[in-house]
Amino acid sequence: MHRGRAYLALALANLFWAGNYVFGEMVTTEITPISLTFWRWVFAAIPLLVLAWAIERPDWRAATREWPLHLLQSALGLTGYTLFLYSALGLTGAVNAAVISAINPATIALAAAIFLHQRLHGLQIVGLVVAFAGVTLVLTGGDVLAVLEQGFRIGDLLVVASVIAWTAYSIVARRLRTPPITATAVQAVLAVATMLPFVTVIGVTLPTTAGGIAGLAYIVIFPSMLGYALWNLGSGAVGPARAGIFLNLLPVFTVLIALAFGQSLEPIAMAGGALVLLGVYLTLRIGRAKRADASTDLPVR
Predict the structure, then answer these.
(1) Per residue in 142-193, pLDDT tens?
(2) Which of 53, 132, 199, 227 has a Cα-to-Cα distance from 283 of 20 to 30 A?
(3) Is-contact 135 278, C-beta < 8 A?
(4) Where are the domains of the chain?
(5) What is the tens place of the pLDDT at every residue in 96-143?
(6) Single pTM value for the model
(7) What CA–CA distance (Å, rounded) separates 106 from 108?
(8) Which 3-state string (H, E, C) describes the chain?
(9) How far is CA 287 from CA 121, 130, 241, 294, in A?
(10) Which parts pass through the membrane (predicted)?
């Protein structure tokens, strides 16, 4: 693939994932986060299997031999991460959620250093500190004393929980040999299977308004399917380290989409988001020393 097309594919993937935040917030006003998570993977599972076959031509037997890891991945990333995020969106909003989630590449880099013994260089450590300072600014609204008295907002804590879930997903993913789209397809099937007993008892609903139906369709088609295909095509052409830089577009696109839908952006969120982006850039910056880049893991968004 030509480099220009690869960059376009990576940018579009992040644009599609950004829409997940805005449309996720919209759809969760009509149906529960459990319903949205369940229907997302029900409708995306078979198309993902087709995409995996068309793009990666996988060895399905080899993929199924890794079923314990896929089951863990499904619980962490496709069910856990998604439930936390969709539960948070109705409480904190798409903009705040995107700004806090932007720290994910930095938390993955930190977890890789702790659990996988990947070395962090001086500039990367500075980047981690800056990124966490930015998230702290957003979480506290710039008033640490008030937070100590009143506590954190539950929506923000749920976003933090989604970040932790995705960080764990990304670390476990290092042990998988299954290609990424194939892995996601297998995990989507497992997510549906493992959620079935719960939704049978609790029940699920589908959106009834045109906006809700369109939002669910967007989430199934763009973040769940096309985002994966475009990311893998672009990453395969330019390499995972260079592709990881494009993850910084995710909160930017989310803010732009949210503003287009009439949402407001608080100055404190802008300042915190700028710090997070700077910190993540420093953390993922490719130095002279060779290292395994933390952004090689495909973000389920």
Answers:
(1) 666 666 566 678 998 999 999 999 889 888 888 889 988 899 999 999 999 9
(2) 227
(3) no
(4) 3-296
(5) 888 888 888 788 888 888 888 877 778 878 888 888 888 877 777 666
(6) 0.84
(7) 5
(8) CCHHHHHHHHHHHHHHHHHHHHHHHHHCCCCCHHHHHHHHHHHHHHHHHHHHHHHHCCCHHHHHHCHHHHHHHHHHHHHHHHHHHHHHHHHHCHHHHHHHHCCHHHHHHHHHHHHCCCCCCHHHHHHHHHHHHHHHHHHHCCCHHHHHHHCCCHHHHHHHHHHHHHHHHHHHHCCCCCCHHHHHHHHHHHHHHHHHHHHHHHCCCCCCCHHHHHHHHHHHHHHHHHHHHHHHHHHHHHCHHHHHHHHHHHHHHHHHHHHHCCCCCCHHHHHHHHHHHHHHHHHHCCCCCCCCCHHHCCCCC
(9) 9, 18, 11, 13
(10) 34-55, 67-89, 95-116, 123-148, 154-172, 184-206, 212-231, 243-261, 267-284
The encoded tokens of residue 196 equal: 């079935």
User: Burial letters for 198-212: b for 16+ Cβ neighbours within 10 Å, e otherwise?
Assistant: ebeeeebeebeeeeb
Structure tokens that stand for 297 in this block? 């893991």
